[in-house]
Predict the structure.
Amino acid sequence: MIILGIESSCDETGVAVYCADRGLVAHELHSQVDLHAVYGGVVPEIASRDHLRRLLPLVRRVLADAGAERPDVIAYTAGPGLVGALMVGGGVANGLGPAWDCPVVPVHHMEGHLLAPMLEDVPPEFPFLALLVSGGHTMLIEVSGLGDYELLGTTLDDAVGEAFDKTAKLLGLGYPGGPALAKLALDGDESAFALPRPMVNRPGFDFSFSGLKTAVMLEVRKAEAAGELDARRADIAASFQRAAVDTLVTRSLQAARNQNLARIVVAGGVGANRLLRSEMARCFEGDVHYPRMEFCTDNGAMIAIAGALRAQQASPADEILAQARWPLESLAPPGAPNTA
Ligand code: KG4
Ligand code: ZN
């Protein structure tokens, strides 16, 4: 069985082909980062138009790379994300489905992130704790099986990726800020500024990053007033990154211990952060799984594998699903109805 995966929820156009017997056989990604960088963030209208321009050529290319004329199933990201951008991927999937006489399966973007480590040589076994960290989400989930998700904790305000991006902006770094901030932090002293590790001493497993962001803003203003911002930028970046990573790791370990889980999966764009990857592996006594770097941020391969695992739910194209909001916990195992 050949599954074509299409991702278009934000500013990356990702397309991939996953084969039930051969694994991932082709994948392509077109990043729109340059288009949005001048605006300092993603412009939804520009994102939709660029997905329109890029999708079909990418589909043709991955199928050619895979040596396939057409897939058996098409999986597309149906949410959460920018509705206009989602509708482009959903429209292409639901147009090609009838044309090729193959069924389609709508995929939850965060389930795609969660299942991305399944593409690696040593995939995680169920059950595991998932730390999902992206530009829009910071979640701890107990994953007992495919579609069996219990939300243990989430952010009460900003997502951690958003905190990276906003801090980067304060420091005058370009968009997207996460990778740029991590790079600048390499030259800084992570103990230069005493920044808070929000919520880590509270019961439960929720997060909050707005206090950390405000603390950084105050340090930036102080350094600016003293005419020292340029000299302190790397130290601020390193101190922020350390505080954010410490918070994520501490909370994950608390949740894993409490739920008696021996495996942690870290996924989503912030999962590409090298300090987070190394600290989680160093501090957790169990196994830690990640997707390879390129599959941490948005991509088509994670949608293709999620589609492969949910292929039994594929049905003839009918309604194009595009949902800006879609709680991950509402998903059910294949074969059972979703709860929302
Ligand atoms: O999963 P993703 O590609 O898109 C969403 O679904 O949101 O995540 C993007 C987020 C952005 O906030 C970006 O700054 C952050 O992931 N990010 C990083 C790194 N690479 C990407 N944050 C910290 N360190 C990185 N190396
Ligand atoms: Zn994402």
Notes: The longest helix spans residues 229-259. Residues 109, 113, 134, 268-269, 298 surround zinc ion (ligand 2) (CB under 6 Å).
